[in-house]
UniProtKB/TrEMBL annotation:
This is CBS domain-containing protein. PANTHER family: CBS DOMAIN-CONTAINING PROTEIN, CBS DOMAIN-CONTAINING PROTEIN CBSX3, MITOCHONDRIAL. It comes from Microvirga guangxiensis. InterPro entries: CBS_dom, CBS_dom_sf, cNMP-bd_dom, cNMP-bd_dom_sf, Diverse_CBS-Domain, DUF294_put_nucleoTrafse_sb-bd, GlnD_Uridyltrans_N, RmlC-like_jellyroll. Gene3D superfamilies: CBS-domain, Jelly Rolls. Keywords: CBS domain. GO terms for molecular function: [protein-PII] uridylyltransferase activity. Residues 10-124 form the Cyclic nucleotide-binding domain. It holds the Pfam family cNMP_binding.
């Protein structure tokens, strides 16, 4: 059937021959309003693709999703033998019918197509990431030379000595210079200087024009990176001159192109360590943010991006601490990061979530100056103040260990929602400066206060219902309580928060010191608190929400609409992506039910 859209995911993953085979086996089905197309728990002999009309996906009496034209259903019934929900025609509906035997044959031959039919979220996401990675590599090669990070051109005169040229390279922290010699321009590198002195035994007073190369191969700043790569290969060069309007701008080096693929994570720590001022650190902070977007564009998995970014941000904030803390606080104070940074799940910079614990008293004036200086320095680096004032500037979050333990006791005694949220925030804390044993002692004190306190754990667990998890159905039915419009979903409130907080609850119950959500889940599986299969599903769902949120964050940054950084527009994602998101929301609903049944938060 030629009317079938082969560009519609997941069918866009098929080869031309596979597409022809699929079209040849198609049939069409008609369904009357309220007709059950696939009952819950039943297998299916067809993969359905909606042509016209709509299909409600019902879990008991709840409509969890409404499928429209080009949406596919139900992969579970087709491949795994049992539909997870009822699929009911909401109106007169026409569907393409793809025979089960044809689908199974394509699954066995085409791994990318098969990924759509995986039962668990984690495998779907992995397959999706692999496809994006391949697309990302192509996008890197099609980047412009001007998108590559390169040093500005530095020129020397041809008459200066080899020794002077070497000093110039050192002073500019660069390994290649342009050499002007009358009407011509050449290039000299550090290796050229070394070979001239060591191998050719030339005096260091020799003019640099004698050792440079005037056969300059160049690439324009507007050329594609792959064109530069071809020139390097053709001329056996490791670097090319970059030109713009016939002016030399700098050099494109092979390591720069490698950096486009691998990011600059190996270079940024050095920039942080060499920084001598907050302004110097601002450049490193921009590098970290630029790397996030570059790695995402290349299809790097979200957990890898988050781990790399969190590690670099911790280095950055530790350096800010060194620059702003007086010696008394550097000796006695342990800087803590909390929130997504503490859990190692940070991607794009958000507001400050930090604290300071002291293992002994320090002069009051030193502490006051540090509180303001540290928070202001971070604001200057692009970390806005926390709306809830969970930051060093707040005396509640910068005090001695003994007084903070008394603060924990007061929160436990109060037991209200604000107190429980403060405990939850502290649970995510990670130490980035010595003495780190202060944090361990504080967390152990917190665990001791909460062990065996069923009512307290129930109140803590009840925060999981702070925001409702919506059904991915008719756009107008997305619940306002998740803080989104009728065609949007708040990924933090609907997905990330319930997983993070439910896992926090279980972690307190089992006295688990791990801070990242994925590590806590793995520890909970080992402790027997979660089934291994469901643990994998939870981690997969968490990564789904992190992936979609990073996209939303990058989009919001480009649009200058930071207030919408957690909002995902549902009309901007593909059928496959909607399928992954729907599965992730299903996992969240299951996890909520597990927490409710285990802690009975409504009973206290």
């Amino acid at each position: 059937m030629q009317g079938f859209d082969i560009t519609n995911p997941p069918f866009d993953r098929l080869s031309y021959q596979e597409s022809a085979e699929l079209r040849a086996g198609l049939d069409i089905g008609y369904y009357a309003p309220e007709e059950v197309i696939i009952p819950q728990g039943s297998p299916s002999d067809w993969l359905h693709v909606v042509i016209k009309g709509s299909v409600e996906v019902r879990d008991r009496s709840t409509v969890t999703t409404v499928l429209g034209p080009k949406d596919s259903f139900d992969s579970r019934a087709l491949v795994h033998g049992a539909a997870g929900e009822d699929f009911v025609a909401a109106e007169e509906t026409l569907c393409y019918l793809v025979p089960r035997r044809n689908v199974l044959a394509l699954i066995h031959r085409n791994a990318a197509f098969a990924a759509f039919f995986y039962a668990d979220v984690s495998r779907k996401l992995d397959a999706f990431a692999q496809q994006r990675k391949a697309e990302g590599m192509d996008s890197v090669l099609r980047a412009r030379v001007g998108d590559v990070r390169y040093r500005a051109a530095v020129f020397v005169e041809g008459g200066i000595s080899i020794e002077q040229t070497g000093h110039c390279m050192r002073d500019h922290d660069i390994n290649a210079l342009f050499v002007r010699d009358r009407q011509r321009v050449g290039v000299v590198t550090g290796m050229n200087l070394s070979k001239a002195v060591v191998l050719r035994r030339l005096p260091i007073e020799t003019p640099v024009r004698e050792v440079c190369h005037f056969d300059v191969i160049s690439v324009d700043v507007e050329d594609f990176v792959f064109e530069g790569l071809l020139l390097m290969t053709k001329h056996n060069k490791r670097r090319l001159a970059i030109t713009s309007n016939d002016q030399y701008m700098g050099f494109l080096e092979d390591i720069d192109i490698l950096g486009l693929f691998a990011g600059n994570s190996q270079l940024i720590p050095g920039r942080i360590d060499r920084a001598r001022s907050i302004d110097d650190l601002a450049a490193a902070a921009r590098d970290i943010e630029a790397q996030v977007e570059r790695l995402h564009r290349q299809g790097v998995k979200i957990d890898v991006i988050a781990e790399m970014t969190s590690d670099l941000n911790r280095r950055l904030l530790a350096r800010v601490f060194e620059m702003t803390a007086p010696p008394t606080i550097q000796e006695a104070g342990c800087l803590l990061l909390m929130g997504s940074e503490g859990r190692g799940e940070q991607t794009v910079r958000t507001d400050q979530d930090n604290a300071l614990l002291l293992d002994k008293d320090v002069p009051a004036l030193d502490l006051i100056r540090f509180r303001d200086g540290f928070s202001e320095a971070l604001a200057g680096l692009g970390f806005p103040p926390c709306p809830g004032n969970i930051m060093v500037r707040n005396p509640v979050w910068s005090q001695s260990l003994d007084s903070f333990i008394r603060q924990l006791k007061s929160w436990v005694l109060r037991g209200d929602a604000e107190a429980m949220m403060n405990i939850a925030i502290f649970l995510d804390a990670v130490a980035v400066t010595n003495p780190i044993d202060i944090l361990i002692r504080a967390k152990r004190a917190m665990f001791e206060l909460m062990w065996g306190e069923a009512a307290l754990l129930a109140r803590f667990a009840s925060l999981i219902d702070t925001f409702a998890t919506p059904n991915l159905g008719v756009l107008g039915t997305i619940m306002a309580s998740v803080g989104a419009g009728p065609d949007e979903i708040d990924l933090k409130r609907a997905g990330t928060f319930p997983i993070v907080h439910g896992v926090r609850t279980l972690a307190i119950d089992k006295a688990i010191l791990e801070t990242s959500t994925a590590s806590r889940i793995e520890a909970l599986v080992k402790a027997g608190a979660l089934e291994p299969s469901f643990g994998r599903e939870l981690i997969g769902a968490l990564h789904v929400f992190m992936e979609f949120r990073l996209r939303s964050q990058l989009y919001a940054l480009h649009k200058g609409e930071l207030e919408s950084e957690a909002l995902l527009r549902l009309d901007g994602i593909s059928t496959v992506e909607r399928d992954i998101l729907r599965d992730a929301l299903r996992v969240v609903r299951q996890f909520r039910d597990l927490i409710r049944s285990r802690y009975n938060p409504g009973g206290f």
